[in-house]
Design brief:
- This protein is mostly beta strands.
- 9% of the residues lie in helices and 41% in strands.
- It is built from five helices and 33 strands.
- The longest helix has 21 residues.
- The N and C termini lie far apart (100 Å).
Length: 511
Amino acid sequence: MYKILTGLILSLQVFTAFAADRFGFQTVVERARLLAEQPYQAPLPAPRFMLDLNYDQYRDIRFDPDKSLWRRQATPFKALLNIPGTFYRHPVKINVIDIGGVHPVPFDKNNFIFEDQDLKRRVPLDLGYAGFVLTYPINDPKIQDQFIVFAGASYFRAVGRGNVWGLTARGLAIDTGLPSGEEFPDFVEYWLEQPAAGAREMRVYALLDGPSVTGAFDMVIRPGLPTEMKVSAVIFPRTQIRLLGIAPLTSMFYYGENSHRPQGEWRGEVHDSDGLLFQNGSGEWLWRPLQNPGGLEVDYFNTGDIKGFGLLQRDAQFSDYQDLSARYDLRPSAWVRPDAKWGVGQIVLLQIPTTGEWNDNIVAFWTPEQPLPPNQPYKYGYTLGFGGPEPVKQPVGRAINSFIGDGNVTGGGSAPGAYRILVDFTGGDLDKLAPDAMIEPIVSGMNQTEVLESFVEYNQALASWRLSILARPAEDKALDLRAYLLAGGRALTETWSYRLPPGNGILNLEE
């Protein structure tokens, strides 16, 4: 009998190890394919009393780090778990893959520290988790830092070494900014592959589901400077999707150096990101400073075969913000680099009005030129990096400041209805030029914007080159400009692109 039991146990161990080996990305892809053939079923929401918690009440429920996944293993990665409530509307399934196979992580409310014991008693024993946080000694080898969190719809956010939390990313965006309304597909199940001892990276699989689409995601995550994720995805449209957003990024821009400062604000700037950068198929780099517009602004940039895009926090000096609490100077930038050619498409930038710094009002993503047909898989991959302030090396000069003011005041000019714009460029071959070098500004006005003057001078204080523009938009039209610096017939900088809607509070209209 002993020999029979021993043989049975060994056979079971071999089977479970084999099952773990067999589980992989293709397993999740097949799950997504089968799910797409079924009618969509929305996830069951968390109990109403959990959803009605305010921010402080929810924050008073904390996961106990001593209950983290892999706390007894030698791996430098650990995982903390989130509880549903407030922003996190429903539980998700979380599994661990190890040498023994695939195991669901059972919910246990004793894993959480509750400030309100009455609330703890009301929490169901089978509530489930809303997501997870990964930790790693990213800054100090003796400290487990939280560096990436997955929770809420398909949202996740990460930081690189030395960063604090800022902008977020998503698995997918559907119809973002369209009058029909946005759809938010969810990561409904995760599989966390247990990292080995001394591992520098770990793998997470995710299953996505929504009314219009399902999807499978394979994410290999490597914390550091920057923190990088190698993403492979296969999505299955259930229906015709009007506007598909690939590798979407979400951020906040309240005000900055190129916008009106709200009355009473003492800080120079308040934002998680200050510009959109992308490199199109022809190799041109384009920089668009962000805005907090009076109404919804949607821009579409034709890119050909996109080489990369991201939302950046270029203003990375404490003096830009003077905020000891929020530390906007430490917010990360994010950069998306396609792993292969995505084909013809557009970068979409949405800028939504906000009256404060608590609302994410900026969204950027890539969308294919042709809508995806339903019931057919669509495969793509990319590397997403979080760090900063410059997460990608540019061979050309870049715009580090964009200032704007009234073009009819002392120091701005004497042109009613015009704006004075100052753009500081540095980097690339600009840094090799003598201060008296001959540099030509190439400035274009679009959509009836009139360029009244433009010139370039060396900015000794910043060791940069300052482009000065005086431009006037048509009545009740946006100021719309593009500019770059030229020398010897060769572009020395990225293309600076700027669009300022009317009613922005910058012009002194009383004169």
